[in-house]
Design goal:
- The complex is a heterodimer of chains A (368) and B (357).
- Chain A is α/β, with parallel strands linked by helices and 368 residues long.
- Chain A has 14 helices and seven strands.
- Chain A has helices at 40-65, 79-87, 102-107, 112-120, 129-132, 143-158, 176-188, 207-210, 219-223, 235-250, 280-287, 291-302, 307-329, 349-364, and strands at residues 94-96, 164-169, 192-198, 201-202, 205-206, 227-231, 256-261.
- Chain A has a five-stranded parallel sheet, sandwiched between helices.
- In chain A, helix 2 packs parallel to helix 10 (235-250).
- Chain B is of the alpha/beta class and 357 residues long.
- Chain B is built from 13 helices and 17 strands.
- In chain B, the strands form four sheets. Chain B has a seven-stranded mixed sheet with strand order 5-4-6-7-9-8-15, sandwiched between helices. Chain B has a five-stranded mixed sheet with strand order 12-14-13-16-17, sandwiched between helices.
- In chain B, helix 9 (244-257) links the parallel strand 13 and strand 14.
- In chain B, helix 1 packs across helix 9, helix 2 packs parallel to helix 8 and helix 4 runs parallel beside helix 5.
- The longest helix of chain B has 15 residues, at 38-52.
- The termini of chain B are far apart.
- Classes of the chains: A alpha/beta (368), B alpha/beta (357).
- Chains A and B meet through helix 6 and helix 7 of A and helix 4, helix 5 and helix 6 of B.
- The structure holds thiamine diphosphate.
Chain lengths: 368, 357
């Protein structure tokens, strides 16, 4: 008996992560899988956004320590993945972020007060998803990967020129929904890009206890989709890879998995103690691969950045930090009656009755 | 309109009573009545919804070529094409999770969970996202998704094929939970669920799939958040839904022979609960019992008993009773007759009241 074995379409990602700009700020000699380095103008924009994001993360982390926010998961150190991937999106594309992706929301243009509403405790999602073409940040791990797939499927059925991008972590990649999303997206050939931010830890669990695979990008092959392993601290590589993957999706060629190798510089959230699960040497080691430093070095070499421009960007970052402080220092207006307003599209007697209970309590307490 | 239960309508007391039940509220366009099973009614509801609204999509495990394991989606793929009706990969969380994304992008997905217990892998997506998206986004994102779940037992199914999972959904704010007990309601309620901007868990009583009724489709019965008095009585109110409506009607017949006048209410929608209709009945009869197949502890009957007591305490002559499945995992086929609430068990329960009170 002979069995017809299909041989096309199977390939594993290269072991060496795709990278254009090395830690020293010089061009690398890594194979880049046919991708091209973005223009200096694009890179300058990415630089600016990464600086803003870093300042934003620092400011929010600081305000969290002061008790202004209930909790905050910072993406400091992951600026290249957050900014590079999100910037590649067209306005019509949709982003499906997680709790760690405030930097992506900022890049998408969501106002700071609306990004931080969830962490301050004002409301679960502070922005209008339709306005920013951005889904509420999902907290149950990996669930958003399916939403991105379904949204892209609808776009495909409607003939819309839109793709979706979703972020997930190395920990989330162990969840069943990740498998289901990879499979659905590939079977349905949806225009979806899965950006797996491998920041080496899921809270305290290190990668080697999360998976026994050589690399997470390898998984793509098992679903019949391309997988790329990218230096997640090289914004040029992230932007180029995600742009190409979005293009692929828009051309009807289906989903792509992109693993970004990166590192979380802060704790998981303000409530954990990272010294319990990693040592300072490791953190120091990763500092050498800082996404902003290396791009700055590179762009100074090409002449696209100089002291004046760097100072200007730093100033914009300070202004952003000030706006974050203002937004978080202003007391948000909260109307407890809203508890009942958005549970169902149609009115429900039981909720109307419960609302009356609350209103009576509010009136008794002298509330407006 | 007349109702048959499949094999021998003459010996099935449900037949007569369900007739009066639906005849009062049903309306149709005057087409010639014919014998319609619940499966056929559901199938027609899907067909009509697909025809009326381009954004309606039907997908799930085996719902395309095969027409679903209960044939509820039979013929729809051939008629509407595989862009509207298709077989999804086998993954329940995937089905619900992608339906969420589709609904965010303007679609009205109608998805099938193959059996009650096989919705459990999708529990997280249903409870954490389907139910909460509207609230999370202050009403900016609505998810008009209909989740069809064949549920409950009495079909001789092996393990995991007979669960009554309703309470997981009814105790989740944000979901509407509907369960028809007859073909006319099955049609009308499914049309309404698909048209609803709120997500609906649409529970189909498996043991009633083959129940026949003479009617002409399309049919519009009572609105989906209303319970219905389907048999009038003065001594006691029996509350039932889905598969146990038949048990309640049979009990009413049997009770009548003993001189007991039993009122029967088909709840039709479990969440929201129609306090008004049920309380009015209980105030009239002063006694009530609820029948369901699901286990008793923390079950739907507990909620019903509590809220009826809260609202009607002074009208009650006796505690509200629950006649339910036992607090054991749903049993094997050869044991299910001992598990399911029977007419005798309901009558015994009613007899346990001190009728002199
Ligand atoms: C289904 C689920 N289980 C557990 C959690 C609690 N939790 C929140 S973040 C996290 C770690 C996630 O790690 P990873 O996916 O690598 O993302 P990172 O936080 O590193 O960005 C855990 C376990 C959750 N949010 N959802």
């Amino acid at each position: 008996m002979t069995i017809d074995v299909p041989t096309t379409g199977r390939s594993l990602p290269q072991l060496q992560p795709i990278s254009f700009i090395g830690a020293d700020g010089r061009l690398t000699d890594t194979p880049t899988e046919g991708l091209r380095i973005p223009s200096d103008a694009t890179l300058t924009g990415l630089y600016r956004q990464m600086v803003l994001v870093r300042r934003f993360e620092a400011q929010v982390t600081h305000l969290t320590r002061q008790g202004r926010l209930a909790t905050y998961p910072s993406a400091a150190g992951q600026e290249a993945a957050e900014v590079g991937a999100t910037t590649a999106l067209a306005p019509n594309d949709w982003l499906f972020p997680t709790y760690r992706d405030s930097a992506a929301l900022l890049t998408r243009g969501v106002p700071v007060a609306e990004i931080l509403a969830a962490f301050r405790g004002d409301w679960h999602c502070g922005f209008d998803p339709h306005e920013y073409h951005t889904s509420p940040a999902a907290t149950p791990l990996a669930t958003q990967t399916l939403h991105a797939t379904g949204f892209a499927m609808a776009a495909k059925l409607k003939g819309e020129d839109a793709a979706t991008l979703t972020f997930l972590g190395d920990g989330a990649s162990s969840e069943g929904d990740t498998h289901e999303a990879f499979n659905f997206a590939s079977v349905w050939q949806t225009p979806t890009v899965f950006v797996l931010q491998n920041n080496q830890y899921a809270i305290s669990t290190p990668l080697r206890e999360q998976t026994n695979a050589t690399m997470l990008a390898d998984r793509a092959a098992g679903y019949g989709m391309p997988g790329l392993r990218v230096d997640g601290n090289d914004v040029a590589a992230v932007f180029a890879a995600v742009s190409a993957a979005l293009e692929r999706g828009r051309n009807g060629d289906g989903p792509t998995l992109i693993e970004c190798l990166t590192y979380r510089m802060e704790s998981h959230t303000n409530s954990d103690d990272p010294t319990k699960y990693r040592d300072t040497e490791e953190v120091e080691h990763w500092k050498q691969f800082d996404p902003i430093d290396r791009l700055e070095k590179y762009l100074r070499q090409t002449g696209a950045l100089d002291d004046a421009r760097v100072a200007e960007v730093a100033e914009a970052a300070e202004a952003l930090a000030a706006s974050v402080r203002d937004a978080m220092n202003a007391e948000a207006e909260i109307d407890p009656r809203e508890l009942f307003a958005h549970v169902y599209a149609s009115p429900r007697t039981a909720l109307t009755e419960q609302r009356q209970v609350l209103e009576a309590e509010l009136a008794a307490a002298g509330h407006a | 309109m007349s109702v048959e239960t499949g094999t021998d309508p003459t010996t099935d007391p449900t037949a007569v009573n369900a007739e009066t039940a639906t005849a009062t509220s049903a309306s149709n366009d005057g087409a010639t009545p014919s014998s319609v099973t619940m499966t056929k009614a559901l199938n027609q509801a899907l067909r009509d919804s697909l025809a009326d609204d381009d954004t309606v999509l039907v997908f799930g495990e085996d719902v395309g070529r095969l027409g679903g394991v209960f044939r509820v989606t039979e013929g729809l793929r051939a008629e509407f094409g595989s862009n509207r009706v298709w077989d999804s990969p086998l993954a329940e969380s995937g089905i619900i999770g992608t339906a969420i994304g589709m609904a965010m992008n303007g679609m009205r997905p109608v998805v099938e969970m193959q059996f009650d217990a096989y919705a459990y892998p999708a529990f997280e997506q249903i409870v954490s996202h389907v139910a909460k998206m509207r609230n999370r986004t202050k009403g900016r994102v609505s998810l008009p998704i209909t989740i069809r779940i064949p549920y409950a037992g009495d079909i001789g199914g092996v393990e995991h094929h007979s669960d009554s999972s309703e309470v997981y959904w009814t105790s989740t704010p944000g979901l509407t939970v509907v369960t028809p007990s007859n073909p006319a309601d099955a049609y009308s309620l499914l049309r309404e669920s698909i048209a609803s901007d709120d997500p609906v868990v649409f529970m189909e009583p498996k043991s009633r799939y083959w129940m026949k009724e003479t009617l002409s489709l399309p049919v519009t019965t009572a609105p989906m958040n209303r319970a219905q008095v389907i048999r009038e009585g003065t001594d006691v109110t029996l509350l039932a839904y889905g598969p146990t409506v038949r048990t309640a009607l049979e009990t009413a017949e049997a009770g009548a022979e003993h001189g007991l006048s039993i009122e029967v209410i088909d709840l039709r929608t479990l969440s929201p609960f129609d306090d008004e209709t049920v309380s009015a009945s209980v105030r009239k009869t002063s006694r009530a019992a609820i029948i369901h197949e699901a286990a008793q502890f923390g079950g739907y009957g507990a909620e019903v008993a509590a809220r009826l007591t809260e609202r009607n305490f002074t009208f009650l002559s006796a505690p509200i009773l629950r006649v339910t499945g036992f607090d054991v995992p749903y049993p094997s086929p050869k044991l299910e007759e001992f598990y399911l609430p029977t007419v005798e068990r309901v009558l015994d329960a009613l007899e346990s009241w001190d009728w002199e009170l």
